[in-house]
Amino acid sequence: MRSLEAYRQTFAEIQKRHRWSKGSPTLRIAALALAGVPGPDAAAAMDRAADTLRETAGFWNSLNSPVRTVLAAMILRRGLDPAAVHDAMTRTVAQFEKRGLSAYGVFPKLAALVLTFRHGPETPAVVLDRMHGIQSAWVRDHFWLTGQDDLPMAALHASRSEAVPALTQRLEDIYGHLVRRKFGRGNALQLASHILGVRPWDGARAAGRFGEIADALERKAISVGRNYYDEIAVLALTDASPERIAAEVKQARDVLWNDVGWTARELAFPLAAGCFLAEQAAGPDWQEAHEIAATKQVLDILAAQAAMVAVCCVV
Predict the structure, then answer these.
(1) pLDDT confidence of residue 235
(2) What per-residue confidence (pLDDT) applies to 58?
(3) Residue 312 pLDDT
(4) What is the pLDDT of residues 263-292, one digit of tens each?
(5) Is residue 76 part of a domain?
(6) Cα–Cα dist 138/145, whole Å
(7) Most Cβ neighbours (<10 Å): which of 93, 128, 186, 192?
(8) What is the pTM of this model?
Protein backbone atom coordinates (compact mmCIF):
# COMPACT_ATOMS: atom_id res chain seq x y z
CA MET A 1 0.00 0.00 0.00
CA ARG A 2 1.73 3.17 -1.22
CA SER A 3 -0.08 5.40 1.24
CA LEU A 4 1.16 3.28 4.15
CA GLU A 5 4.77 3.76 3.12
CA ALA A 6 4.16 7.47 2.53
CA TYR A 7 2.71 7.75 6.04
CA ARG A 8 5.62 5.89 7.63
CA GLN A 9 8.17 8.04 5.82
CA THR A 10 6.35 11.21 6.82
CA PHE A 11 6.15 10.17 10.45
CA ALA A 12 9.87 9.33 10.44
CA GLU A 13 10.60 12.87 9.23
CA ILE A 14 8.36 14.37 11.90
CA GLN A 15 9.94 12.24 14.60
CA LYS A 16 13.40 13.52 13.68
CA ARG A 17 12.17 16.97 14.68
CA HIS A 18 10.33 15.77 17.80
CA ARG A 19 12.59 13.22 19.43
CA TRP A 20 11.17 14.16 22.81
CA SER A 21 7.68 13.09 21.80
CA LYS A 22 8.33 9.33 21.61
CA GLY A 23 5.71 9.06 18.89
CA SER A 24 2.82 10.92 20.48
CA PRO A 25 -0.72 10.23 19.20
CA THR A 26 -0.96 13.83 18.01
CA LEU A 27 2.08 13.54 15.75
CA ARG A 28 0.97 10.18 14.35
CA ILE A 29 -2.40 11.54 13.27
CA ALA A 30 -0.76 14.72 11.95
CA ALA A 31 1.55 12.55 9.81
CA LEU A 32 -1.51 10.99 8.18
CA ALA A 33 -2.64 14.39 6.89
CA LEU A 34 0.88 15.60 6.15
CA ALA A 35 1.61 12.57 3.94
CA GLY A 36 -0.46 14.29 1.27
CA VAL A 37 1.69 17.45 1.33
CA PRO A 38 4.34 17.54 -1.42
CA GLY A 39 7.93 18.59 -0.87
CA PRO A 40 10.83 17.53 1.35
CA ASP A 41 10.24 20.18 4.03
CA ALA A 42 6.64 19.33 4.94
CA ALA A 43 7.49 18.46 8.56
CA ALA A 44 9.27 21.78 9.09
CA ALA A 45 6.37 23.62 7.45
CA MET A 46 3.94 21.85 9.79
CA ASP A 47 5.92 22.97 12.84
CA ARG A 48 5.94 26.56 11.59
CA ALA A 49 2.19 26.40 10.94
CA ALA A 50 1.56 24.96 14.42
CA ASP A 51 3.67 27.75 15.94
CA THR A 52 1.65 30.32 14.00
CA LEU A 53 -1.60 28.88 15.38
CA ARG A 54 -0.23 28.95 18.92
CA GLU A 55 1.12 32.50 18.66
CA THR A 56 -2.02 33.82 17.00
CA ALA A 57 -4.35 32.05 19.41
CA GLY A 58 -2.73 33.19 22.65
CA PHE A 59 -1.76 31.33 25.80
CA TRP A 60 -5.21 30.45 27.11
CA ASN A 61 -6.73 29.45 23.78
CA SER A 62 -7.54 25.77 23.19
CA LEU A 63 -5.22 25.84 20.17
CA ASN A 64 -2.31 26.28 22.58
CA SER A 65 -2.30 22.48 22.95
CA PRO A 66 -0.81 19.51 21.08
CA VAL A 67 -3.87 19.20 18.81
CA ARG A 68 -2.80 22.36 16.96
CA THR A 69 -0.23 20.17 15.16
CA VAL A 70 -3.02 18.06 13.65
CA LEU A 71 -4.93 21.16 12.55
CA ALA A 72 -1.73 22.63 11.08
CA ALA A 73 -1.22 19.50 8.97
CA MET A 74 -4.82 19.68 7.75
CA ILE A 75 -4.32 23.32 6.74
CA LEU A 76 -1.07 22.60 4.90
CA ARG A 77 -2.68 19.68 3.08
CA ARG A 78 -4.96 22.22 1.44
CA GLY A 79 -2.19 24.72 0.72
CA LEU A 80 -3.71 27.44 2.92
CA ASP A 81 -2.10 30.16 5.03
CA PRO A 82 -2.29 29.26 8.76
CA ALA A 83 -2.65 32.84 10.03
CA ALA A 84 -5.43 33.62 7.54
CA VAL A 85 -7.21 30.39 8.43
CA HIS A 86 -7.00 31.19 12.14
CA ASP A 87 -8.48 34.65 11.53
CA ALA A 88 -11.38 33.08 9.62
CA MET A 89 -11.90 30.49 12.40
CA THR A 90 -12.00 33.25 15.03
CA ARG A 91 -14.70 35.14 13.13
CA THR A 92 -16.69 31.93 12.65
CA VAL A 93 -16.50 30.94 16.32
CA ALA A 94 -17.81 34.41 17.23
CA GLN A 95 -20.82 33.66 15.02
CA PHE A 96 -21.33 30.38 16.90
CA GLU A 97 -21.60 32.31 20.15
CA LYS A 98 -24.16 34.71 18.68
CA ARG A 99 -26.32 31.70 17.78
CA GLY A 100 -26.05 30.06 21.18
CA LEU A 101 -23.62 27.37 20.03
CA SER A 102 -20.63 26.40 22.13
CA ALA A 103 -17.62 28.59 21.35
CA TYR A 104 -15.01 27.33 23.81
CA GLY A 105 -12.74 24.33 23.49
CA VAL A 106 -11.22 22.40 20.62
CA PHE A 107 -14.37 21.05 18.97
CA PRO A 108 -15.85 24.47 18.08
CA LYS A 109 -12.44 25.34 16.61
CA LEU A 110 -12.49 22.15 14.54
CA ALA A 111 -16.04 22.94 13.38
CA ALA A 112 -14.92 26.43 12.39
CA LEU A 113 -11.99 24.91 10.50
CA VAL A 114 -14.34 22.64 8.54
CA LEU A 115 -16.45 25.66 7.59
CA THR A 116 -13.35 27.65 6.61
CA PHE A 117 -12.18 24.83 4.37
CA ARG A 118 -15.59 24.81 2.70
CA HIS A 119 -16.47 28.48 2.50
CA GLY A 120 -13.25 30.48 2.77
CA PRO A 121 -12.76 33.56 4.94
CA GLU A 122 -16.47 34.22 5.58
CA THR A 123 -18.98 31.45 6.21
CA PRO A 124 -22.42 32.49 4.89
CA ALA A 125 -25.05 33.20 7.53
CA VAL A 126 -27.39 30.63 5.95
CA VAL A 127 -24.81 27.89 6.56
CA LEU A 128 -24.33 28.96 10.18
CA ASP A 129 -28.11 28.97 10.66
CA ARG A 130 -28.29 25.47 9.17
CA MET A 131 -25.59 24.32 11.55
CA HIS A 132 -27.53 25.71 14.51
CA GLY A 133 -30.65 23.94 13.28
CA ILE A 134 -28.84 20.62 12.88
CA GLN A 135 -27.20 20.79 16.31
CA SER A 136 -30.50 21.79 17.93
CA ALA A 137 -32.26 18.81 16.33
CA TRP A 138 -29.53 16.47 17.59
CA VAL A 139 -29.89 17.87 21.10
CA ARG A 140 -33.66 17.35 20.86
CA ASP A 141 -33.30 13.74 19.67
CA HIS A 142 -30.37 12.74 21.92
CA PHE A 143 -29.93 15.40 24.59
CA TRP A 144 -27.98 12.94 26.75
CA LEU A 145 -25.46 12.28 23.98
CA THR A 146 -25.15 15.50 22.01
CA GLY A 147 -22.46 18.00 22.99
CA GLN A 148 -19.83 20.22 21.51
CA ASP A 149 -18.02 17.18 20.10
CA ASP A 150 -20.87 16.93 17.56
CA LEU A 151 -20.25 20.44 16.21
CA PRO A 152 -17.69 19.45 13.54
CA MET A 153 -20.11 17.01 11.89
CA ALA A 154 -22.90 19.58 12.20
CA ALA A 155 -20.62 21.98 10.32
CA LEU A 156 -19.94 19.38 7.64
CA HIS A 157 -23.64 18.64 7.11
CA ALA A 158 -24.52 22.35 7.23
CA SER A 159 -22.28 22.85 4.20
CA ARG A 160 -24.40 20.47 2.15
CA SER A 161 -27.79 21.10 0.52
CA GLU A 162 -30.16 18.58 2.13
CA ALA A 163 -33.02 20.20 4.02
CA VAL A 164 -32.37 20.18 7.76
CA PRO A 165 -35.58 18.33 8.82
CA ALA A 166 -35.05 15.62 6.20
CA LEU A 167 -31.35 15.31 7.08
CA THR A 168 -31.80 14.99 10.83
CA GLN A 169 -34.66 12.51 10.41
CA ARG A 170 -32.53 10.40 8.06
CA LEU A 171 -29.59 10.43 10.50
CA GLU A 172 -31.91 9.41 13.33
CA ASP A 173 -33.17 6.56 11.12
CA ILE A 174 -29.58 5.43 10.52
CA TYR A 175 -28.88 5.46 14.27
CA GLY A 176 -32.03 3.40 14.91
CA HIS A 177 -31.11 0.78 12.32
CA LEU A 178 -27.59 0.48 13.78
CA VAL A 179 -29.08 -0.09 17.23
CA ARG A 180 -31.37 -2.77 15.80
CA ARG A 181 -28.28 -4.49 14.42
CA LYS A 182 -27.01 -4.71 18.03
CA PHE A 183 -24.28 -2.09 17.78
CA GLY A 184 -23.82 -0.36 21.13
CA ARG A 185 -25.73 2.83 21.78
CA GLY A 186 -23.84 5.97 22.73
CA ASN A 187 -21.62 8.77 21.50
CA ALA A 188 -19.56 6.55 19.22
CA LEU A 189 -22.64 5.21 17.42
CA GLN A 190 -24.11 8.69 17.09
CA LEU A 191 -20.90 9.89 15.40
CA ALA A 192 -21.00 6.84 13.12
CA SER A 193 -24.56 7.67 12.07
CA HIS A 194 -23.57 11.26 11.34
CA ILE A 195 -20.67 10.07 9.18
CA LEU A 196 -22.75 7.47 7.32
CA GLY A 197 -25.24 10.23 6.54
CA VAL A 198 -22.67 11.84 4.23
CA ARG A 199 -23.92 9.38 1.60
CA PRO A 200 -27.59 9.78 0.61
CA TRP A 201 -28.54 6.43 2.16
CA ASP A 202 -31.61 5.55 4.16
CA GLY A 203 -31.22 3.87 7.53
CA ALA A 204 -31.42 0.27 6.31
CA ARG A 205 -28.83 0.71 3.57
CA ALA A 206 -26.39 2.68 5.75
CA ALA A 207 -26.61 0.22 8.64
CA GLY A 208 -26.34 -2.71 6.23
CA ARG A 209 -23.14 -1.35 4.70
CA PHE A 210 -21.70 -0.63 8.16
CA GLY A 211 -22.58 -4.13 9.37
CA GLU A 212 -21.06 -5.83 6.32
CA ILE A 213 -17.72 -4.10 6.91
CA ALA A 214 -17.80 -4.81 10.65
CA ASP A 215 -18.48 -8.50 9.92
CA ALA A 216 -15.63 -8.63 7.37
CA LEU A 217 -13.24 -7.12 9.93
CA GLU A 218 -14.34 -9.63 12.55
CA ARG A 219 -13.60 -12.45 10.10
CA LYS A 220 -10.05 -11.04 9.90
CA ALA A 221 -9.79 -11.29 13.70
CA ILE A 222 -10.22 -7.53 14.26
CA SER A 223 -12.52 -7.12 17.21
CA VAL A 224 -14.99 -4.32 16.46
CA GLY A 225 -15.53 -2.21 19.56
CA ARG A 226 -17.15 1.19 19.98
CA ASN A 227 -13.79 2.92 19.49
CA TYR A 228 -13.76 1.66 15.87
CA TYR A 229 -17.29 2.74 14.92
CA ASP A 230 -16.31 6.10 13.46
CA GLU A 231 -13.53 4.67 11.30
CA ILE A 232 -15.77 1.87 10.04
CA ALA A 233 -18.37 4.47 9.11
CA VAL A 234 -15.82 6.41 7.06
CA LEU A 235 -14.63 3.19 5.39
CA ALA A 236 -18.28 2.47 4.54
CA LEU A 237 -18.42 5.67 2.48
CA THR A 238 -16.03 4.17 -0.08
CA ASP A 239 -17.13 1.92 -2.93
CA ALA A 240 -14.66 -0.84 -2.05
CA SER A 241 -16.00 -4.29 -1.14
CA PRO A 242 -16.12 -5.23 2.55
CA GLU A 243 -13.66 -8.07 1.87
CA ARG A 244 -11.12 -5.76 0.26
CA ILE A 245 -11.49 -3.18 3.02
CA ALA A 246 -10.97 -5.78 5.73
CA ALA A 247 -7.98 -7.42 4.02
CA GLU A 248 -6.08 -4.20 3.27
CA VAL A 249 -6.87 -2.49 6.57
CA LYS A 250 -5.83 -5.64 8.46
CA GLN A 251 -2.54 -5.79 6.54
CA ALA A 252 -1.79 -2.12 7.25
CA ARG A 253 -2.88 -2.41 10.89
CA ASP A 254 -0.50 -5.31 11.49
CA VAL A 255 2.42 -3.26 10.17
CA LEU A 256 1.42 -0.24 12.23
CA TRP A 257 0.76 -2.39 15.29
CA ASN A 258 4.48 -3.06 15.46
CA ASP A 259 5.39 0.55 14.63
CA VAL A 260 3.38 2.31 17.31
CA GLY A 261 4.29 0.11 20.28
CA TRP A 262 1.99 -0.99 23.05
CA THR A 263 1.37 2.53 24.43
CA ALA A 264 -0.38 3.71 21.26
CA ARG A 265 -1.84 0.55 19.76
CA GLU A 266 -5.34 1.98 19.85
CA LEU A 267 -4.18 4.22 16.99
CA ALA A 268 -3.09 1.38 14.70
CA PHE A 269 -6.61 0.81 13.32
CA PRO A 270 -7.52 4.46 12.61
CA LEU A 271 -4.12 4.98 11.01
CA ALA A 272 -4.60 1.89 8.85
CA ALA A 273 -8.08 3.08 7.88
CA GLY A 274 -6.64 6.48 6.98
CA CYS A 275 -4.00 4.89 4.75
CA PHE A 276 -6.69 2.86 2.98
CA LEU A 277 -8.87 5.94 2.48
CA ALA A 278 -5.94 7.87 1.00
CA GLU A 279 -5.96 5.47 -1.95
CA GLN A 280 -9.67 5.72 -2.65
CA ALA A 281 -11.41 8.20 -4.95
CA ALA A 282 -12.82 10.09 -1.98
CA GLY A 283 -14.51 13.48 -2.13
CA PRO A 284 -13.97 16.28 0.41
CA ASP A 285 -16.89 15.11 2.57
CA TRP A 286 -15.17 11.77 3.13
CA GLN A 287 -11.79 13.32 3.79
CA GLU A 288 -13.14 15.78 6.31
CA ALA A 289 -15.29 13.14 8.03
CA HIS A 290 -12.15 11.06 8.55
CA GLU A 291 -10.19 14.06 9.80
CA ILE A 292 -12.95 14.80 12.32
CA ALA A 293 -12.97 11.17 13.50
CA ALA A 294 -9.18 10.98 13.73
CA THR A 295 -8.90 14.27 15.62
CA LYS A 296 -11.58 13.15 18.08
CA GLN A 297 -9.60 9.94 18.60
CA VAL A 298 -6.51 12.00 19.49
CA LEU A 299 -8.50 14.18 21.89
CA ASP A 300 -9.97 11.10 23.59
CA ILE A 301 -6.50 9.60 24.02
CA LEU A 302 -5.04 12.86 25.36
CA ALA A 303 -7.94 13.15 27.80
CA ALA A 304 -7.42 9.56 28.98
CA GLN A 305 -3.70 10.19 29.43
CA ALA A 306 -4.38 13.39 31.39
CA ALA A 307 -6.83 11.53 33.62
CA MET A 308 -4.27 8.80 34.24
CA VAL A 309 -1.64 11.38 35.21
CA ALA A 310 -4.12 13.07 37.53
CA VAL A 311 -4.97 9.79 39.25
CA CYS A 312 -1.28 8.94 39.64
CA CYS A 313 -0.63 12.35 41.19
CA VAL A 314 -3.49 11.91 43.64
CA VAL A 315 -2.39 8.41 44.56
Answers:
(1) 95
(2) 66
(3) 38
(4) 567 888 999 999 999 888 656 676 788 888
(5) no
(6) 9
(7) 192
(8) 0.91
Count of domains for the chain: 1
4, part of any domain: no
| In-domain check, residue 149 | no
The number of C-alpha atoms within 13 Å of 150 and in the hemisphere containing its C-beta is 28
Rounded to an integer, the average pLDDT of 77-85 is 93
Instruction: Return the pLDDT at 102.
Output: 93
Confidence of residue 55 (pLDDT cuts 50, 70, 90): confident
Give the domain range for residue 262.
198-315
